[in-house]
From TrEMBL:
Keywords tagged on the record: Hydrolase, Iron, Metal-binding
Molecular functions (GO terms): cyclic-nucleotide phosphodiesterase activity; metal ion binding
InterPro entries: Calcineurin-like_PHP (IPR004843), CNP_phosphodiesterase-III (IPR050884), GpdQ/CpdA-like (IPR026575), GpdQ_beta-strand (IPR042281), GpdQ_catalytic (IPR042283), Metallo-depent_PP-like (IPR029052)
Protein name from the UniProt record: 3',5'-cyclic adenosine monophosphate phosphodiesterase CpdA
Designated gene of the protein: cpdA
SUPFAM superfamilies on file: Metallo-dependent phosphatases (SSF56300)
PANTHER family tied to this protein: CYCLIC NUCLEOTIDE PHOSPHODIESTERASE CBUA0032-RELATED, PHOSPHOHYDROLASE
Organism phylogeny: Bacteria, Pseudomonadati, Pseudomonadota, Gammaproteobacteria, Pseudomonadales
One protein family per Pfam: Metallophos
Residues covered by the Calcineurin-like phosphoesterase domain: 7-201
Similarity comment: family membership: Belongs to the cyclic nucleotide phosphodiesterase class-III family.
Length: 275
């Protein structure tokens, strides 16, 4: 019997070193450890994990050391793209054994060893929180997608290529999003564009496919769609995405939330619906 290929996506880990809390409040390392424990215990277990940026909080070597130690507890391969809180050179050094990461230049990459092809994009601007895809980066993506037009593909980057309505986050958005959409629209093998940054689960039709934003592993951005909404976070339940690939039916995406809740409870008693 054919088994689904299961892909977990986590994002915006914001790991700090020395047990420090992000913004003085959030135990991001503890939150990551809880997510790792959950992913390792899932049945079926995910085949791979994709991590869509903001891996650490301030891009220091110490933070990446803490991150690496935690991620090595995963029982499956994991793949990284940087976010605006990351330092690409420190990331590259900390994960020098990750064969897919280039030794120099932008952290763009492809992975060909799974049923779904993976393409990672580096949307960061050093020292800034907004994102950018320059013409040469988009040309690189166009070339990669043209190489294998029938191969189902996931494209991942940190910054979502669309406005969310959360004003303070949209002001830190992606320059080059329209050009990215033009590239994606030429390639119908792209099953998803996977992103982070917004700390909320959000989906949008994009370039003939679906762009999915993953919730944060710890804190979430407040869902406030007023134009004047301040920049704030909340300790709503953390979450992750599970993308289930089936060659017959395509890609199905589920959102899961962290936490312990009552249940599960049965719907039926024998053959009868419980009244």
């Amino acid at each position: 019997m054919n088994r689904h290929f299961l892909i977990a996506q986590i994002s915006d880990l914001h790991i700090k070193a020395g047990g420090r809390r992000s913004y003085g409040v959030v135990d991001t390392l503890g939150a990551l450890r809880r997510v790792i424990t959950r992913l390792n215990a899932l049945e079926p277990r995910p085949d791979i994990v994709l991590i869509t940026g903001d891996l650490v909080d301030f891009g220091t070597a110490e933070e990446y050391g803490t991150l690496r130690e935690a991620l090595l507890e995963l029982l499956m391969p994991f793949y990284l793209v940087p976010g605006n809180h990351d330092d690409c050179e420190q990331l590259r050094q900390a994960f020098a054994d990750h064969y897919y990461l280039p030794k120099r230049g932008r952290l763009h990459w492809t992975v060909e060893t799974h049923p779904v092809r993976l393409i990672g994009l580096d949307s960061t601007i050093a020292g800034q929180h907004s994102g950018l895809l320059e013409p040469e980066q988009l040309e690189w993506l166009q070339t990669r997608l043209s190489e294998k037009p029938t191969r189902p593909t996931l494209v991942m980057l940190h910054h979502p290529p669309f406005p969310s309505g959360i004003g303070h986050m949209d002001r830190l958005g992606l320059v080059g999003a329209e050009a990215l959409e033009r590239v994606i629209s030429r390639h119908d093998q792209v099953e998803r564009v996977l992103c982070g940054h917004l700390h909320r689960p959000i989906q949008k039709r994009f370039g003939g496919t679906v762009a999915c934003v993953c919730p944060g592993t710890s804190h979430q951005v407040v869902l406030d769609l007023r134009d004047e909404a301040p920049s704030r976070f909340t300790l709503e339940p953390a979450g992750y995405l599970l993308h289930m690939w089936d060659p017959t039916h395509g890609l199905v995406t589920h959102q899961a939330v962290m936490g312990e809740y009552p249940g599960p409870y049965p719907f039926f008693d024998g053959d009868e619906l419980i009244d």
